[in-house]
């Protein structure tokens, strides 16, 4: 996995490189700018394009100015620099002087902002650009950009709206670990991160501003980068831990999942979840259905064992007739897809079984309601995985951590606060939280004092289709039932397989439905298993 770090950790790496390895800061800046421009220049077909470099007063601004100088010296003569900021780092002062002495046109917006002054000239320069390089601010930002910097962000984003490509240096300017995600942030189509990826770029709101994220190393010693404590880890498909199965494995040895889902008008969700589990190599799936929808689900799912949800009537009152003993033949449970309301009594039984349990959709809402009734349900269950989208996450957080915490999500939170909130939610519920979306955050604080956070960076809008989450929940339940790895690993593998299936479906047919997505889950599983062929002939660990 790839280490992603906080701004504090990156600052410590920078300081250590200068102090312990005697690498001057100006050298790090030079290498950052030169290597970033080398990467960018490969994508530009003509040297006639107009490139505007927007540079703040800090080291990120200095990086952008090194890029401007190198571009100019390499023959991109149509370069201009927009300068912003009055508090300048020594290295940035040097880079400004070099650019001016070379004859690169500079516009310093700190000297005025009205009428035909510098800001008006900056707006004209941006509007006529073919490429904008954003170096306004870096990871050290402590609060929202304001004044001239905020105005420049707005102007850059107007250019982005007109499809003028914007490249950000290190992070989209305006983003920071401790900066509210509603602050002004540059919307880039690509970000070149220095040294290591940054935590703040992967907040679900900020991620939409970063575009394609790549990393260059401005000559930081490999030892420093390798020893950096990971705030989060970025998982790619190569990190999927699935192995090829022994060819003798039979359905009864590949896990049996119980699915509790469906309600009148919502029979598709449990069917998708069950199919997702099957394609993720689950041996058996039993779907428990209410009387009203039993005929529909039984007819639609020939591969699924469909059973009526047991009910009992005592003294004229009908209640759930399912007991913990009825669940002893299962290795994992999935509850929630299309479930409807009023399921707290049934959920309590599922929690009491202490079996690995995935709660999705209405299962999360039922859990939130149950917590309000009896906070003791937070403890004493088996392995528990939540798979909420943003709205369900707010419901869950409100029930467990309170309304104030829930109201911050995606609105008033910061990247650091978002991570801390997920960690606290995981800790309080003794669960793993897979907050799904265009970027998936998977947090496990059950291993305290060493909590782990893993990001699976999706950015595949085609996966944002009705029923996609049901497929993901089914995949995760199948992996939990097979117990190849710890529950956190199952959640990570589930997100990776789901993404891989979406990528394969996109490549094959473009847009797709969730029913079509399921067909690619098996291919994703085989792709991962094939990459681990050395495990063939043995049992899964």
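Sequence proposed for the structure above (541 residues):
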């Amino acid at each position: 996995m790839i280490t992603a770090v906080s701004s504090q950790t990156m600052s410590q790496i920078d300081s250590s490189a200068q102090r312990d390895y005697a690498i001057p800061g100006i050298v790090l800046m030079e290498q950052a700018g030169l290597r970033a421009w080398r990467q960018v220049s490969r994508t530009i077909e003509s040297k006639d394009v107009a490139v505007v470099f927007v540079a703040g007063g800090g080291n990120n601004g200095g990086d952008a100015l090194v890029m401007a100088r190198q571009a100019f010296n390499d023959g991109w003569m149509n370069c201009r620099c927009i300068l912003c900021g009055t508090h300048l780092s020594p290295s940035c002062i040097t880079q400004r002087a070099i650019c001016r002495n070379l004859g690169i046109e500079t516009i310093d917006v700190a000297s005025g902002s009205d009428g035909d002054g510098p800001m008006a000239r900056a707006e004209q320069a941006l509007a006529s650009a073919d490429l904008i390089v954003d170096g306004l601010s870096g990871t050290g930002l402590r609060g929202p950009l304001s004044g001239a910097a905020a105005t420049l962000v707005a102007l850059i984003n107007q250019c982005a709206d007109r499809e003028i490509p914007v490249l950000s240096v290190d992070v989209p300017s305006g983003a920071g670990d401790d900066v509210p995600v509603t602050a002004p942030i540059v919307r880039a189509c690509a970000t070149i991160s220095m040294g290591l990826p940054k935590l703040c770029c992967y907040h679900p709101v900020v991620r939409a501003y970063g575009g394609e994220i790549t990393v260059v190393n401005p000559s930081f010693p490999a030892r420093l980068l390798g020893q950096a404590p990971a705030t989060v880890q970025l998982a790619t498909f190569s990190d999927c831990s699935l192995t090829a199965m022994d060819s003798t494995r039979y359905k009864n040895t590949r896990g049996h999942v119980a699915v509790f889902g469906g309600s009148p008008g919502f029979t598709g969700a449990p069917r998708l979840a069950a199919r997702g589990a099957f394609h993720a190599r689950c041996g058996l799936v039993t779907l428990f259905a209410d009387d009203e929808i039993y005929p529909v689900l039984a007819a639609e799912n020939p591969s699924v064992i469909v059973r009526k949800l047991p009910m009992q009537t005592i003294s004229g009152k009908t209640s759930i007739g399912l007991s913990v003993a009825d669940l002893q033949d299962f290795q994992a449970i999935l509850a929630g897809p299309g479930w409807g309301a009023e399921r707290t009594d049934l959920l309590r039984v599922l929690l009491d079984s202490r079996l690995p349990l995935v709660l999705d959709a209405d299962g999360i809402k039922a859990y939130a309601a149950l917590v309000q009734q009896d906070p003791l349900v937070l403890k004493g269950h088996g392995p528990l995985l939540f798979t909420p989208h943003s709205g369900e996450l707010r419901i869950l957080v409100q029930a467990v951590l309170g309304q104030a915490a829930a109201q911050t999500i995606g609105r008033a939170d910061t990247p650091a606060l978002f991570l801390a909130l997920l960690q606290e939610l995981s800790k309080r519920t003794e669960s793993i939280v897979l907050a799904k979306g265009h970027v998936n955050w998977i947090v496990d604080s059950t291993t305290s004092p060493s909590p782990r956070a893993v990001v699976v960076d999706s950015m595949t809008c085609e996966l944002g289709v009705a029923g996609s989450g049901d497929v993901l929940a089914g995949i995760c339940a199948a992996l939990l039932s097979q117990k190849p790895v710890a529950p956190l690993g199952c959640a990570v593998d589930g997100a990776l397989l789901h993404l891989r299936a979406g990528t394969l479906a996109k490549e094959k047919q473009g847009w797709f439905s969730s029913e079509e997505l399921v067909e690619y889950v098996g291919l994703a599983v085989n792709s991962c298993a094939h990459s681990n062929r050395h495990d063939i002939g043995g049992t899964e660990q």
